[in-house]
TrEMBL record, chains A, B:
It comes from Dulcicalothrix desertica PCC 7102. Keywords: Amino-acid biosynthesis, Aromatic amino acid biosynthesis, Lyase, Pyridoxal phosphate, Tryptophan biosynthesis. PANTHER family: TRYPTOPHAN SYNTHASE, TRYPTOPHAN SYNTHASE-RELATED. This is Tryptophan synthase beta chain. The lineage of its organism: Bacteria, Bacillati, Cyanobacteriota, Cyanophyceae, Nostocales. Belongs to the TrpB family. Residues 76-415 form the Tryptophan synthase beta chain-like PALP domain. Tetramer of two alpha and two beta chains. GO terms for cellular component: cytoplasm. GO terms for molecular function: L-serine hydro-lyase (adding indole, L-tryptophan-forming) activity; pyridoxal phosphate binding; tryptophan synthase activity.
Length: 453, 453
């Protein structure tokens, strides 16, 4: 009764991404200009992104071809394995079937290269010389560093200052690929200097780091900005995960009743879930539920407001309608750094509002405990972010046990935890606590939301 | 011109290991009892190992079946990919073809689970309840921790004290799987106490840690000892690497002129090379060279003596004929902790003596530089141990360029460096130096070799 792997051959790797905008019952709310509050045009975004990514951002084509060169690099680690977690099922003594898609075999150990590679590619062919970005835990910055090395692009990563100091190994990893890593807030940008003037000891946030990276990009025509989640084109690139999973489940002769993913900016959840949500929207498969798990310490979907907000602290990005805790919200220092963003992908927020996805929040202690149970049964130690999906899946499996029903549960194991051993060290030493925010605390940041329309 | 992956399907995974003892032109020198100096019997080894592993240790059968349950677990990450490093070839501007087999996709990130899983399996079916072992850098201890979790065996790891303190993340990783990790020398064993009495500040060595693990195992019938390299059965288990590679090169329509591997205890080198050396010994393929790369700071094959010696410091293990720097040799603290053993696998030593393998030694600075070039071209950041193989392969490729010949070079990329970021941090900060030993220094440890026969 060992765990089973379902592996596709290389020629079964998808040659297109799936664009859920083609199947939405109603279109997303429009994106607004940060200065004028009016509808944004593709031209407004050109200082930030190459045109092909802007076109993907607004496209309603159902399938968008993956360029041959991107496919060629994907093939270094894709198709990734789908596992039937039979040892975990046995350890939980559940009648449920548990499947997980594993994205940890990429060069950076997570799903992030799925979008870093095409972003670097489209920038390269558009003549970009340098990419700026932000990173929290470091997964995204690492992936863009690898992609930059592949395509000969300079990469500058504004890394949230607290992570810069707490995670020197992540920094060393990015620098190994030739990226330049700057602690944010920094003195290199006006946004950074302004924050430092007001709060000299600021430990930074993703919102601030985004402001710095965007500011640097708009100043120079050969420099563009890259974002590791939130945007439509990023979610699009991640759908390679779910498309592969559909084919792998067909090999297994199965189809999920429940799909679970963790959500920070929303891209790994979208990656596994959107192809299945699309099938549901098109009426092909009805009886399937989707669970988005977020940390209780950054409860964007469960306690945030669905409203227009900025993506960054200095309000340089466009305004988007999303679930948000307010762009001034600075989440507590939980170890799942990839899930600490004040907002959520507007596309996923829209889908949650349509009632297609159920959000849930868990404290980090329960998530680490679930991650260790998973590791001992399945052998893979998950990243702290992925532990949220593991916890969500285990809870569904235990509910099946209580109710005596066998359901098929699928979750996305978006990365391994080999870079996150400080988190596991602290957890095992009993040093971690669960932090939640009161509605008053959340209300304060929300009071600063922009007034729109 | 991207890197190409050659992947076997699951049913092409080998169902037997290859035992090079079947093809040796002359048998290995015998193993001697540590107390009597006489030939050792299988019964002498029974306190340490289950009988099926002892049988593998002395077998001369060419193929030994991989148990179904071991195959089933191997399949979680095997067959592993073989890559044609076309981006690296381009970066080096070499006419050579470079292939690398990648073992970093295992749950522990290295080739070590290839033997940890069968060792745990044979112990489990023999009724063992607890395994003791030693670990230097932590790769082996991590792998045995995972294997112990799979088979419900308690695992106790004596970790070289300097690594225990320098690599807390490795310790946390092992503990995540439920293993108990003890800094060696410890107060838990007589060997440990004796060392501590004489050298209270001892930072330990693999030789000492082996003494402690062996001492604990022999005291209790339900406890056995597991070793991560050096022994014949360990090298046997690793041949799954080379057997897969043979099939993958057949897919590629190629055959290597040169095979490169790094050597600490010898198991990853044996894993990739033995199936090819066997083909050479059987006269199937003649024109192929084998290069074993070791660190200049622990030059067992290049500066050691081929002589009988103990595997451990307290002289509890049998005596074996091998290349050795003397069991009291304490190598300097280079970051390739997996290559810091005073001895070498007797089987590999024998094969080196037969003139079948050419040993080479490199300083760590050149190896780190090679590892970074590799990472930027191929995307994967190698473990410091693996960097020695990378450096060896790059040197061969550059020689091809100089000589204007196209050769086919194969090397084993035995693990990723995600756990070794302190090493890369130190290297990039210019904090590392190359250390070599004078012949006098090496002579001192060698003077203590046992007198045999």
């Amino acid at each position: 009764m060992d765990t089973i792997k379902y592996l596709l051959s290389e020629n079964q790797m998808p040659d297109s991404w799936y664009n859920i905008q083609a199947d939405l019952p109603e279109p997303m709310p429009p994106v607004l200009h940060p200065g004028t509050g009016k509808l944004i045009t593709p031209g407004d975004l050109e200082p930030l992104f190459p045109m092909q990514l802007i076109e993907q951002e607004v496209s309603t084509e159902r399938f968008i071809e993956i360029p041959e060169q991107v496919q060629s690099i994907y093939r270094q680690w894709r198709p990734t394995p789908l596992y039937r977690a039979r040892r975990l099922e046995k350890a939980l003594d559940t009648p449920a079937k548990i499947y997980y898609k594993y994205e940890g075999t990429s060069p950076a150990g997570s799903h992030k290269p799925n979008t870093a590679i095409p972003q670097a590619y489209y920038n390269k062919i558009a003549g970009t010389k340098r990419l700026t970005t932000e990173t929290g835990a470091g997964q995204w910055g690492s992936s863009l560093a690898v992609a930059g090395a592949f395509f000969g692009l300079d990469v500058e990563v504004y890394m949230v200052k607290v992570s810069y100091h707490q995670k020197p190994y992540r920094r060393a990893f990015m620098e190994s690929y030739g990226a330049r890593v700057i602690a944010s807030p920094s003195n290199e940008t006006e946004s950074g200097r302004k924050i430092l003037q007001e709060y000299p000891n600021s430990t930074g946030s993703l919102g601030i780091a985004i402001s710095e990276a965007v500011e640097m990009a708009v100043q120079d025509a050969e420099t563009k900005y890259a974002l590791g989640s939130v945007l439509n084109h990023v979610l699009l690139h991640q759908t390679v995960i779910g498309i592969e999973t559909l084919a792998q489940l067909e090999m297994a002769g199965d189809y999920p009743d429940i799909i679970v993913g963790c959500t920070g900016g929303g891209s790994n959840f979208a990656g596994i879930a959107f192809p299945f949500i699309g099938a549901k929207l098109r009426g092909e498969k009805q009886d399937i539920n989707f669970v988005a798990v977020e940390p209780a310490a950054c409860p964007t979907l469960t306690k945030g407001k669905y409203a227009y907000d900025f993506g960054d602290t200095a309000h340089l990005t466009p305004m988007v309608k999303m679930h948000t805790l307010g762009s001034t919200f600075i989440p507590t220092g939980i170890h799942a750094g990839g899930l600490r963003y004040h907002g959520m992908a507007p596309l996923l927020s829209h889908i949650v509002e349509l009632g297609l996805v159920e959000p849930k929040a868990y404290g980090q202690l329960d998530c680490f405990a679930a991650g260790l149970s998973f590791a001992r049964a399945e052998g893979i130690l998950p990243a702290p972010e992925a532990n949220h999906a593991v916890k969500g899946a285990i809870d569904e499996a235990l509910r099946c046990k209580e109710e005596g029903v066998s359901k098929t549960i699928l979750f996305n194991l978006c990365g391994h935890g080999h870079f996150d051993m400080q988190a596991y060290t602290d957890y095992q030493a009993g040093l971690l606590v669960d932090l939640e925010y009161s509605s008053e605390e959340i209300g304060m940041a929300l009071a600063g939301l922009p007034v729109v329309g």
